[in-house]
Batch of 4 targets.
Target 1
Amino acid sequence: MSNSNASSSSSTIASSISAESTGANADPQELTIFVQQLLQQMQSRFQTMSDTIISKIDEMGKRIDDLEQSLQDVMQQSGGVAIGTQSSTTTQ
């Protein structure tokens, strides 16, 4: 979710809360329903953000794996030492 979407969501939620709280005779049951709906919306948004983050992390992991494989191939083609193995001479 982008910052503009988050800002827009916050404004919508704030407007809903303001509109709901201006009623002097707010029924406790209506307020309970409103809060439950608000929490469900928040949970849904957090789940969407979480899924997006996990998806991007998985994609980044795959790209890193592909990069490591490409580097391994280049090292083998150049006659260098394979990644993950140690050279017989070390520099300090």
Note: The mean pLDDT is 79.
Target 2
Amino acid sequence: MKSFAGRFARILLLILLTVTVGAGVARRPSVASPARRCAFRGVIQSIDANALAITIIHDYVEGYGPAGLLTVHVGDSTDVSRMRVGNTVRATLVVHDDRKLVLEDVVVSGGSAPRDPDSVPRPAGRRV
């Protein structure tokens, strides 16, 4: 009788371990969270056509942060050659998990005098 109880206990333990380990392996891989999208508006300060990036002094961005100076990438479909320093930009700011910032749905409008980057309020202790 003792050997039957011992075997039963071992088999039960083996089944429990198999189920526990199997449950850990069967988990779905984590899915990357979707990128955040925020309405964005600002004035172009500089343009890097080779990198498809522009530096913009922007207003407060709901869902992202306070006004400041930001370098963002523009999508391939955006014609950087039509952008000029001083143009006003309205777009959707896309913030990816890897902290890459991209502008989509870009609308460039006439000239606005470039603002002085030092006049934009920035959070204390944070370099832009």
Note: The chain is about 20% helix and 35% strand.
Target 3
Amino acid sequence: MIYKKIIPEIMVDLGERTVFEDLRHPYHILRLHIHLESWAGDDLLEIAPCFIVTERLMRSLLDSEFTGFHFDDVEVTTDQYFEDNYNLDKDLPDFYWMKVNGMENKDDLFISDDYLFISERLLKYLQNKFSIKNSQIEPERNEFDDLLDDIFAKRDAKNKPHGPKDNPDNKWLPPNWNE
């Protein structure tokens, strides 16, 4: 299977009623609350580490043979800023949480290195039947990506367990401790 990296429209924040099982990366969310700041009309949205779809897309995917996901409810809120600035000529749809659980070379969707990957056949399906015009497909890397990678690597290093065995040159360990 051939895959493309996709970065969906990002127009939401995690809401205050989101429930985390663990705050260390990778985050595991038990209950999702999103706060819409704006919506440009796409059927696929992202708020890392979660993916949100419109009800129309969810129903279509459930009736399809595509794999690598399941759905759950999401609480959606807006505020006065959203109400004052929402200018699409359509009602705000119901949204659902698309939980990606696919595996590479097996499913149509999977996550790797915090990115969503989509099979070419599912990508074509979405492009032909849904709005994903604000998604970036196969985005090019730039210096900002390198900066983020560095920040995430430092964050992950902080969350790694530290102890005397993590450093083989630790002078306080007895000789031949690891043999």
Note: Residues 22 and 123 are 32 Å apart (CA to CA).
Target 4
Amino acid sequence: MASILSSGRRANLRSLSFQDAQLTLPNGNLIRGQILDLSKDGCYIETLESIPVNTKLHLCIADDSRRCDLEGKVMRSESGGGLGVFGRAVAFENMNAPRQVAIDAWLTAIRALGAEDNDRRKSSRS
């Protein structure tokens, strides 16, 4: 399910997204994670490994029909309350035109799925 989250103090609207992702750290280590929300300028992602704040990384989001490669920096990191899951806020960096087009396409797809989910819920109540 996808939905729109309020922007609050953020410059860009966030969209709820349960999308698998792969992070590559500067030392070459690969970490798998799941993006929980996504915007034009960053995301919140959960992994089983801790990543220190200020770590630069490469983020790859992919599905069967598209791929989005981004650069980012960990701005905030949180532990999962002893559950072994770590969450972090990642700000995107070096957002050139092709990367911006790619992230816009992901956001459009997420929002379209959210609209379909809302329509299904409404019709099931009728």
Note: The longest helix spans residues 97-125.
